[in-house]
Amino acid sequence: MKKSTMLGLLVLVIRRDLVLAMRRRADVLTTLIFFVMVVSLFPLGVGPELAMLRKMAPGVLWVAALLASMLSLGRLFSADYLDGTLEQMMLAPQSLSMLVLGKMTAHWMVSGLPLVLMAPVLGLQFDMSAQAIGVLIVGLMLGTPILSMVGAIGAALTLGLRGGGVLLSLLVLPLCIPVLIFGTGAVEAVASGLSIASHLSLLGALLLLALVFTPWVTAQALRISME
Amino acid sequence: MLEVSNLACSRGDHRLFSGLNFQLHLGQIMQVQGVNGSGKTSLLRTLCGFLMPDEGDIVWRGKSIRELDEDYYAEMLYLGHLNAIKDELSALENLRISAGLSGVELDDKEAIAALRRMGLRGREMLPTKVLSQGQRRRVALARLLVSDAKLWVLDEPLTALDVGAVALIQELIAEHLARQGMVIFTTHQPLHVAGMEMRTLSLS
User: How many domains is chain B partitioned into structurally?
Assistant: First the structure.
């Protein structure tokens, strides 16, 4: 028997959540399929005019990613809450924020990362240039973790509420507006030949800010929800 | 070690108990008694820090548990009504993870030995969703075997257990007390620990 360290506990939580996600693959796939469907519906509905598709591509992809990430947020803590694992996490001899960070990371790897990897294929549907797709990927890579982290606060606050899913979206979506603005802004900037540095560095700054504050805020919200 | 002074707790507008005082020292065991709804579980959850008491303080080794936080949690183990096991995971994975969360890293051999002692021989690799209610409870209780916590807080540990398992839990509690551990628990079934004075706390 060994004492576990803080890092060991973080790895344990991430690994556990990934194993659970692999055993419940349907949950992971629904997010991804939703994303692909919503994005693919736009060219069908709007028509095949390439100039217009190119113009709306970043917005559509980002909004779809935002909505898709809302789908899986409800499950972030609810299963652990219902079967009592969350109680045990609160009694862990390490900071709850650390465990929460582990859960956020696993959530992003399961629901955010697949969207990022899928985005280039979907970008082709909109006739996006290779350069624009590159910027889109970088933006999503920086932005989707923020969605997971900010979303976790909402998930913690609405834990155990009936109809919490809708309330969760109402709480979290407004907070994600800056991510949407800078994410789409970067792609539009590269399309019109402007510098992307400001947009991406702002996204990076948001990511760092979220990384520092959201685990702690989520941990506090979980404590309130457990009372 | 554990001192509770002037503790008051309420759920909603209903005052469950107030002015509660007790102390628990090394090697002591205490049963919390009371009818349904008298606040037994709330008391135990307050001891875990899940519920904020209205008044009073809980002191561990001379310091309030609010201050100690993680240092206190490293020395206590809580088993509630919920088993905290995942249906998708095997008994072995469940035990290793729940031990890991409480700060103890187990290897497969140690975990299997603990599960076998809990009477789960041959079930170690099965997903817990195919186990019976009593067997799942045994998986959860296997944490008692691998924990080095001083204070055990057990909420109805005997539910869904058969006679053999109840005897085993009594044996584990006796061993824990002999190691100078402390136990505070609730139960509606008789639980006898050989050679130990059982203190009781009645909530009304």
Answer: 2
Q: What sign has the CA pseudo-torsion B80, B86, B89, B93? A: negative
B148 Cα to chain A: minimum distance (Å): 10
3-class secondary structure for chain B?
A: CEEEEEEEEEECCEEEEEEEEEEECCCCEEEEECCCCCCHHHHHHHHCCCCCCCEEEEEECCEEHHHHCHHHHCCEEEECCCCCCCCCCEHHHHHHHHHHHCCEECCHHHHHHHHHHCCCCCCCCCEHHHCCHHHHHHHHHHHHHHCCCCEEEEECCCCCCCHHHHHHHHHHHHHHHHCCCEEEEECCCCCCCCCCCEEEEECC
H or E stretch at A90: helix A85-90
Q: Is residue B36 part of a domain?
A: yes
Do B7 and B21 form a contact (C-beta atoms < 8 A)?
A: yes
Examine residue B62 and state whether it is found in any structural domain, yes or no.
yes
Looking at the domain assignment, is residue B81 inside a domain?
Answer: no
The alpha carbon dihedral of A116, A120, A125, A130 has a sign of: positive
Q: What is the pLDDT along chain A (227 residues), one digit of tens a residue?
A: 567 788 888 999 999 999 999 998 888 899 999 999 999 999 899 888 888 998 899 999 999 999 999 988 988 999 899 999 999 999 988 889 999 999 999 999 999 999 999 999 999 989 899 999 999 999 999 999 999 999 999 999 999 888 788 899 999 999 999 999 999 999 999 888 888 899 999 999 999 999 999 999 999 999 998 88
Residues B111 and B175 in one domain: no
User: What residue in A sits closest to B105 (Cα-Cα)?
Assistant: A2
Q: What is the CATH number of the domain that holds B192?
A: 3.40.50.300
Rounded Cα–Cα distance for residues B91 and A87 (Å):
19
CB B32 within 8 A of CB B185: yes
Partner-chain residue, chosen from B76, B84, B148, that has the shortest CB–CB distance to A85:
B84
Q: Do A2 and B98 touch (CB under 8 A)?
A: no
ipTM value: 0.89
Residue B140 structural domain: 86-148
Q: Which of B70, B76, B83 sits opposite A84 (nearest CB)?
A: B83
Q: How many CA atoms lie within 13 A of A56 on its CB side?
A: 17
